[in-house]
């Protein structure tokens, strides 16, 4: 089915502002709408997972932002936070099932370590991918969903 990715991001942002009021969220202006073939519930789940991580794994007050854009035949959603970041050695492994960077602290926060593994498989099921860059003060998860796969070819 077709769904509007911009609308999904706005809905996820509205929900985030209610559930994570201690983290200021900026939605960066982009296209008014971006309709493509995707499963809205599954992509909403991906957005919620990434936004929840940006709040759960950073101190209260940490700025979070989300942006939608189109880049070389793909829809791109960028979810960024100004938190402490993910050390280089952990960056590949955070997508592994049950992997958490700081097990004791992550357990306090109630995470199982499944969120990113689930998000990655959902995005891959759409023919896309999730990329990660991180340094202290700037962690960025980028969800890329190709338009060619999302549309009838
Ligand atoms: P779950 O999502 O299952 O509730 P979780 O959030 O711990 O639990 P993942 O979403 O898979 O699991 O994330 C794996 C780990 O990656 C986290 O435990 C955390 O250590 C690290 N991580 C994820 N997102 C961020 C982020 N934005 N900033 C810092 N660390 C992060
Ligand atoms: Mg998570």
From TrEMBL:
**Where found, per UniProt?**
Cell membrane
Q: Which organism is it from?
A: Streptomyces ferrugineus
Q: Which residues form the signal peptide?
A: none
Q: Report the portion of the entire protein shown.
A: 330 to 482 of 482
In this chain the Histidine kinase domain maps to 1-149
For this entry, the protein name equals histidine kinase
């Amino acid at each position: 089915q077709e769904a509007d990715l911009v609308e999904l991001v706005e809905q996820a942002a509205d929900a985030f502002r209610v559930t994570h009021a201690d983290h200021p969220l900026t939605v960066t202006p982009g296209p008014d709408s971006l309709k493509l073939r995707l499963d809205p519930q599954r992509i909403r789940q991906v957005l919620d997972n990434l936004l929840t991580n940006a709040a759960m794994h950073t101190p209260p007050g940490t700025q979070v932002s989300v942006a939608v854009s189109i880049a070389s035949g793909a829809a791109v959603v960028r979810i960024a936070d100004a938190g402490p970041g993910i050390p280089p050695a952990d960056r590949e492994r955070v997508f592994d099932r049950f992997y958490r960077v700081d097990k004791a602290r992550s357990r306090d926060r109630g995470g199982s370590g499944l969120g990113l593994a689930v998000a990655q498989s959902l995005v891959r099921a759409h023919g896309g991918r999730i990329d990660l860059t991180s340094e202290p003060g700037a962690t960025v998860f980028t969800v890329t969903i190709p338009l060619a796969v999302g549309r009838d070819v």
